[in-house]
Design a protein that fits this description.
mainly beta, 2 domains, 11 strands
């Protein structure tokens, strides 16, 4: 996988307090970086802001794991993973979070088109808190389970 390629990772959207923020992308030989500037009001007043970003990432099918780690304290974290157009039969999430409140995990109902899982944790989270998504592909299921997952 080429870490500098948009085919492997791409930031699709970034909002600050609900307002879309322009993002600049730079690419190096083995990496890429996305840079955005906070609105002047947030910087001058120094108040907390709500940052929401949506990105697309491609992982190798043999990896079976995606780990997302918070680099700094965060509050009221919601993390959603849409795996609708994949060969994933089952997706689970594990959190490495020390928090007063338990993580709540939601899945789309079976009768709704698409497949997604959402983790919602109210309150403050410390840096290095993380979430591991692990999955099983359809082809890896025992033969008796193939018809159930299809």
């Amino acid at each position: 996988m080429d870490a500098s390629s948009r085919e492997c990772f791409e930031l699709l959207s970034l909002t600050v307090d609900g307002d879309e923020v322009s993002v600049r992308r730079s690419e190096r030989r083995h990496s890429q970086a996305y840079v955005a500037t906070l609105p002047d009001s947030a910087v001058i007043e120094g108040h907390p802001v709500r940052i929401r970003h949506i990105y697309r990432v491609v992982t190798p099918t043999w990896g079976h794991r995606l780990f997302v780690q918070l680099p700094q304290p965060a509050r009221n974290v919601t993390l959603s993973m849409d795996y609708t157009n994949t060969d994933i039969a089952y997706l689970s999430v594990t959190d490495t979070v020390s928090s007063k409140s338990r993580a709540q995990i939601y899945r789309l109902p079976e009768d709704v088109p698409g497949r997604a899982i959402t983790v919602d944790i109210p309150g403050w989270l410390l840096p290095s808190a993380g979430f591991a998504f692990t999955w099983t592909l359809n082809e890896e299921l025992p033969r008796s389970e193939h018809s159930k997952a299809a």
